[in-house]
């Protein structure tokens, strides 16, 4: 059940998160051009609601970087972490497919390949490898060290879940504007792979030359967060 929880939780996460991006950037939607604050708010709510939906049957990591952190801490085994990561990638792909089906007429009307890709995967506002990598490292570092710190406090489950959503919202507002803050390898890789596979008009390429940054950056950020957390505690 743990693995299914990670799968279905990530489906909901990406469905709601990429759904708000699609609504903002694709043409002729009711919320077209609603702006970055709406996207950051949507992703924060997506995380909170996905954790609420799956947290009773799994740890609700919903993020390979978070699973890596708990494996490093010894909370879960490495085998379990790998299975979680696979389930998270597959869940992200299904969630993104559902977004595509929901917004199919708007994808058909879209003419900007960057906007189309942006509803699947992240991309930098200014392409600079070092800066973009630092952005993903820092965002995930904050995410993981705060999640680990939540475990030091006796918070009711609902408050803890809402706090994670608020954390993602805060990261989006403060650090997310440079790369779109993937801070989650599954959230970026799974939908990017689906983008490459789907027959979308005017979609352009899937920008695989950038794709390693939202994978490597979050993993580095998670490792650094675990190291500092262990020093602090």
From TrEMBL:
The cellular location(s) given in this protein's UniProt record come to:
Membrane
Q: Name one Pfam family in it.
A: MIP
Which superkingdom is the protein from?
A: Bacteria
Q: What sections of the protein cross the membrane?
A: 6-27, 34-57, 133-153, 159-183, 210-232
**Record InterPro entries:** Aquaporin-like (IPR023271), MIP (IPR000425), MIP/Aquaporin (IPR050363), MIP_CS (IPR022357)
Classification via SUPFAM superfamilies: Aquaporin-like
Entry-linked Gene3D superfamilies = Glycerol uptake facilitator protein
What is the name of the protein in this document? MIP family channel protein
Organism this protein belongs to: Streptococcus urinalis 2285-97
Instruction: Provide the organism lineage as a comma list.
Output: Bacteria, Bacillati, Bacillota, Bacilli, Lactobacillales
């Amino acid at each position: 059940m743990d693995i299914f929880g990670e799968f279905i939780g990530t489906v909901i996460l990406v469905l709601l998160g990429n759904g708000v991006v699609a609504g903002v950037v694709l043409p002729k939607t009711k919320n077209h051009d609603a702006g970055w604050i709406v996207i950051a708010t949507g992703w924060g709510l997506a995380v909170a609601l996905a954790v609420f939906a799956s947290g009773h049957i799994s740890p609700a990591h919903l993020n390979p970087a978070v699973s890596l952190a708990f494996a490093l801490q010894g909370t879960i085994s490495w085998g379990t972490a790998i299975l979680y990561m696979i389930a998270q990638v597959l869940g992200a792909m299904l969630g993104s497919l559902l977004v595509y089906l929901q917004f199919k007429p708007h994808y058909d009307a879209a003419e900007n390949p960057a906007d189309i890709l942006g509803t699947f995967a992240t991309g930098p506002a200014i392409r600079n490898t070092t800066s973009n990598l630092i952005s993903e490292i820092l965002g995930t570092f904050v995410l993981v060290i705060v999640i680990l710190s939540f475990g030091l406090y006796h918070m009711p489950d609902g408050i803890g879940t809402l706090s994670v959503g608020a954390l993602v919202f805060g990261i989006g507002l403060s650090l997310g504007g440079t790369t779109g803050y993937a801070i989650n390898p599954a959230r970026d890789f799974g939908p990017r792979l689906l983008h490459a596979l789907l027959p979308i008009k005017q979609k352009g390429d899937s920008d695989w030359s950038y794709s390693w940054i939202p994978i490597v950056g979050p993993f580095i950020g998670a490792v650094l967060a675990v190291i500092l957390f262990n020093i602090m505690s």
